[in-house]
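Quick one before lunch.
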Amino acid sequence: MIVAHKPDVNPDDYCYDTGLKFGSAAGKYLLEKILMRQAGFLPDAVDNKQAYKETAKHNTFSNTKEILRRKKQNKELNNDLTHITSDQWVLPEDLRKAFHKDLPAWLLGLDADTTRTLVQMSHGGDYFSIHSDSKRCSSMFMLLQGQEQETHWYRNTEAFEILNPARIPDHDKIEHVVTAVIRPYRWYVFNHAAWHGVSGFVDGGARVHVSLDFKKLSAQEVVKVVKANTPLARSGPC
Ligand SMILES: [Fe+2]
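Model of the fe (ii) ion complex:
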């Protein structure tokens, strides 16, 4: 549900509620297993921390200084709040197949070679800072469990360099454009390339989602395909 947006933006470019609900039984199965932390259930964790360290090693001194400045901005913006911890798993073959069984062919055929199916769990803090994702431009996104957190998207007011690995913005050069509360067991097109962050985590509550991540397709391109294939799925803003 879009709760606020700047009048001159199309909220669908950031977060589009497709109204589609396929795969929810498989999603519930995934959630139950993840929450029970079954040993070996999801062995293929995406080790972002190691990749982060490797990339950070090769940064120039001026980039490192600028990243630290942006981190300080971010910290000040969030006062004493605690950043959440986030874990991601690429679904192993058997689970991916079981999950894909319920997804339509037009969706699975969308740039299949660079698409991955991922589960993410965020917990243990208050907020997820503003960033843009490096490994996905957009996704089809289904929340499996949440606590009505707000996801916020931002756009540049001035150009600035995107710096890996942190990929956090210069907070003085962005403005808030869209806020959405994503409802569970509905498919959304999520713009990961735009600046975004999540607030309103509840103490002790894990936020879990499953997504089909598109490495190259933009959110606008995915929305176009979804609308072409689901003319009756929904109408009006989410
Ligand atoms: Fe993200």
